[in-house]
Structure to design on (230 residues):
């Protein structure tokens, strides 16, 4: 059973507009959430994260919102740029991973295309 | 600072063979995690090593194994390869000392099983 779900496999947005990528999770024990971006032939790179004690975290053009009651988080990119075109992965971690810091539960990703 | 290095970049094997993949973490990082990425399943956690000890393990069969050396370099081995093992194998490193650290990923090894 998938614990982290990204229900939109793809998203197309015009340059300059807002991109909103969504992620749902089922495990209420998750206490930390991350977004990674992946270009073809490269490994994922960290984008932004949020702790479960917060509902918003902002870093430049990127903002992540967390709605714990709905078990939902979203990544907003404003304004979107063609260089943002990539696959975006939502990931979560919980304290029950036995102290391991490397065990993240990933969604299947959303491919974002930003058109000039 | 050099990033996470994975070798080889590409591998082609046949069913029944075994394969060993290598990962060199960022200098100073002691935790190495391995993930399998397939189009249908996304990234799935295989295992994590910290200071030469396996600290956590995902839900993969025993054919998948790993180890970590004293210099923190890690290897992953898959024995008796199956067609379904075709995937991108990603390695990630972190210090392993703090909670909720971000992971730094390598570019991966693309394994094709024929």
């Amino acid at each position: 059973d998938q614990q982290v779900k990204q229900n939109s496999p793809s998203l197309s947005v015009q340059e300059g507009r807002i991109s909103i990528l969504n992620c749902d999770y089922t495990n209420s024990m998750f206490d930390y959430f991350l977004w990674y971006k992946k270009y073809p032939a490269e490994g994922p790179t960290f984008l932004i994260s949020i702790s479960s004690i917060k509902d918003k975290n902002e870093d430049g053009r990127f903002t992540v919102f967390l709605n714990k009651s709905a078990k939902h988080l979203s990544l907003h990119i404003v304004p979107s740029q063609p260089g943002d075109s990539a696959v975006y992965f939502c990931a979560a971690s919980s304290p029950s991973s036995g102290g391991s810091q490397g065990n993240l539960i990933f969604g299947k990703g959303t491919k974002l295309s930003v058109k000039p | 600072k050099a990033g996470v290095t994975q070798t080889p970049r590409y591998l082609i094997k046949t069913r029944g063979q075994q394969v060993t993949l290598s990962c060199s973490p960022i200098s100073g990082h002691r935790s190495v995690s391995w993930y399998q990425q397939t189009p249908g399943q996304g990234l799935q956690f295989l295992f994590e090593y910290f200071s030469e000890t396996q600290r956590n393990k995902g839900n993969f069969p025993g054919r998948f194994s790993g180890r970590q050396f004293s210099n923190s370099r890690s290897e992953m081995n898959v024995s008796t390869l199956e067609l379904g093992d075709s995937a991108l194998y990603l390695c990630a490193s972190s210090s392993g000392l703090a909670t909720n650290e971000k992971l730094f990923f390598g570019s991966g090894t693309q394994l094709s099983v024929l």
About this structure: DSSP finds no helices and eleven strands in chain B. The longest strand of chain B covers residues 42-50. Chain B has a mean pLDDT of 93.
